[in-house]
Amino acid sequence: MFKNMGWVKRIPVRTCALVVAVLLAPYTASGGPIPRIRVEVFSDAPTLHIEGRGIQLIDTYRNLYLFKNPGDSYIVMSAGNNGMMVNEKLYAARIVTLLFSGGVVKINDRLLRGHLEIANIDDSHLVVINEVDLESYVAGLINAEMPHDWPLEALEAQAVVARTYALWQKGRHLNQYYDMDAGFMDQVYSGAGSEDTRGWDAVNATRGQIITYGGKPILAMYHSICGGETENSEDAIGYRYPYLRSVKCNFCRIAPGFRWKYAMSFRRLARELIAKGYHLSAVSGFKVLKRSRTHRVTIARIVTDRGNIDLDGAALRAVIGYDKLRSTLFWVNGKDGTLLFSGRGFGHGVGMCQWGAYGMAKKGYTYKQIIHYYYKGVRIERMY
Ligand SMILES: [Zn+2]
After folding, report:
1. pLDDT of residue 106
2. Cα-to-centroid distance, 12 and ligand 1 (Å)
3. How far is the CA of 326 from the centre of ligand 1 (A)?
4. FRET partner for 39 with CA separation of 20 to 30 A, picked from 11, 132, 304, 354?
């Protein structure tokens, strides 16, 4: 859920005055407005299928209607030459505001609420930005991040963590057009379709609460299973945060994926590297060069016919696949051109261990105790 967003998106959108006003609002003003979060829900959709009631499509900058129907509508949208195709008709608008009645609208597979903007980025793909209030945003992602039948104290910890993470991202202003993307690199936001009463219970019970350090929202990183010990932030992301310190965690031992194995041939590894743009034709060796204090692999060397490729742990997981090399807490044996990985945990290991939160909640710990266990020296404050 953490990534270096060092790339540039070509979306000709100007940040709206509302977002600027919200960004300037103080973090600790109790009783203040609920911040709004801009989420990129679709990043490069060739086509959008929009279903809903009272749909209006408005050219955002010229304030002209492209479509308006008070009843039920089904609309197909795509990017056209310097404009938008709406039900096969081309309109000269690059950014469109979508309004609807009834609280939610369906776009492709997702139910969404709040303010929606659709932009043509390259004449062949559309981007959809969803602006929602922070509480709805957390409710829309909590069930994607944690099973809804988990103990309420674990869900409440997740709600506070997710709310804090979103505010931290928003405060970075890394992208001019949105604060979060909806994929697992940020937080998995699937919109109103995944909200349920237990998710809302956890959100409402912790309404407005965030985790702070030095009066500011923390980078509330979290992951699925730490595998026995969480990681120091500097060893995973190269920057030391005083609250992201390694802690022992026996609470996640009950997780089904606590231990894992994965086998991969040299040939397959070569194919994956080539697909990622590396120049080689064959892999002949693999060696762990460096481990962190918690024994996670921080540098691994892949020996190829075109020289050595040294990768850090995160890059190695990206090459092999995040769901295959489930963590960097692994050991490896090579045999007959095949690498046998055996490891523990799932994810980068920094911050809250979600299965650990589950284990703690099952043992009777509160959401506040869970948060203070995984984030050191922090406070839980009510922001609004
Ligand atoms: Zn754990």
Report:
1. 96
2. 43
3. 14
4. 354
- According to the 3-state scheme, what is the secondary structure of the chain? CCCCCCCCCCCCCCCCHHHHHHHCCCCCCCCCCCCEEEEEEEEEECEEEEEEEEEEEEECCCCCEEEEEEEEEEEEEEEECCEEEECCEEECCCEEEEEEEEEEEEECCEEECCEEEEEECCCCCEEEEEEEEHHHHHHHHHHHHCCCCCCHHHHHHHHHHHHHHHHHHHHHCCCCCCCEECCCCCCCCCHHHHCCHHHHHHHHHCCCEEEEECCEECCCCEECECCCECECHHHHHCCCCCCCCCCECCHHHHCCCCEEEEEEEHHHHHHHHHHCCCCCCCEEEEEEEEECCCCCEEEEEEEECCEEEEEEHHHHHHHHCCCCCCCCCEEEEEECCEEEEEEECECCCECEEHHHHHHHHHCCCCHHHHHHHHCCCCEEEECC
Question: What pLDDT score does 233 carry?
Answer: 96
Looking at residues 289-294, what average pLDDT do you find?
Answer: 98
Cα–Cα dist 124/144, whole Å:
29
CA–centroid distance, residue 244 to ligand 1 (Å): 14
Q: How far is the CA of 307 from the centre of ligand 1 (A)?
A: 37
Predicted confidence (pLDDT) per residue in 119-147, tens digit: 998 899 999 999 999 999 999 888 888 99
Q: 212, 82, 79, 198: which is closest to 143 by C-alpha?
A: 198
pLDDT value at residue 196: 79
Quick check: 191 and 140 in contact, CB under 8 A?
yes
Supply the pLDDT for residue 3: 35
Ligand 1 mean position, distance from CA 230 (Å) = 7
Q: Are 73 and 52 spatial neighbours (Cβ–Cβ below 8 Å)?
A: yes
Instruction: Write out pLDDT tens, residues 104-116.
Output: 999 998 999 889 9
Of residues 31 and 35, the one with the higher pLDDT is 35
pLDDT digits (tens, 9 = 90+) for 168-206: 988 876 666 777 766 555 666 667 776 778 999 999 999
Which position has the token pair 């969404």? Answer: 112
Please give the single-letter amino acid code of residue 129.
Answer: I
The residues that bridge with 59 in the sheet, in sequence order, are 96
Question: What pLDDT sits at residue 145?
Answer: 85
